[in-house]
Amino acid sequence: MGTTDDVRADLPAAMTNLAEDFHAVTERERLQLLLELSHELPDLPERYAGRLDQMERVDECQSPLFLAVEVADDEARTVSLFFDAPAEAPTTRGFAGILHEGLDGLPAEEVLAVPDDAPYRFGLAEAVSPLRMRGMVGMLGRIKRQVRLRSEALTAGGGA
After folding, report:
1. pLDDT tens digits, residue range 21-42?
2. Strands 79-84 and 56-57: what pairing?
3. Which of 29, 77, 115, 122 could disulfide-link 25, Cβ–Cβ 3.0 to 4.6 Å?
4. Which long-range contacts (C-beta less than 8 Å, at least 24 apart) are formed by 35-41?
5. Residue 126: pLDDT band with limits 50, 70, 90
6. DSSP labels, 69-131
7. What pLDDT band is residue 159 in, cutting at 50, 70 and 90?
């Protein structure tokens, strides 16, 4: 990757803003920013609280992380994301926080257009292990797969 413009060129606006925040600070400060995002991850809504069986486990993550993806039956096919990860897993929660802040509320088309290498655009590969980065890549891949499946179901008239 070349310039910071290359790093953010094809990301949605909210993800671009996050990438800029991460690239504006030192490696150590990036970890602090990731920790802050872990604290900002919203609690699960009542329909998912205590019902992890209704969510998808992200096996690529070292810590237990579950996600649920909803696609609204509206013109934009608005995406809603829900994550559950233990408080003692701040890196995993921080990755989920990046994806939540960057993708939640976007139209399905924009979520599906996010490049698969987006997790590497935040300057975190130098700060965390490759195994942890694999977890964030896994989260994004599962989100995109769920968005695709749910959008297709809506188009086919099967509901999301």
Report:
1. 999 999 999 999 999 999 999 9
2. unpaired
3. 29
4. 35/90, 35/94, 36/94, 37/93, 37/94, 37/97, 37/98, 37/101, 38/90, 38/91, 38/92, 38/93, 38/94, 38/96, 38/97, 39/93, 40/97, 40/101, 41/83, 41/85, 41/93, 41/96, 41/97, 41/100
5. confident
6. EEE-SSTT-BEEEEEE--TT-HHHHHHHHHHHHHHTT-BHHHHHHS-TTGGGGGS-TTTS-HH
7. low
Q: What's the CATH class of domain 4-43+55-155?
A: alpha beta
Q: Which amino acid is at 137?
A: V
Q: Which residues pair with 68 in a beta bridge?
A: 82
What pTM, to 2 d.p., does this model score?
A: 0.91
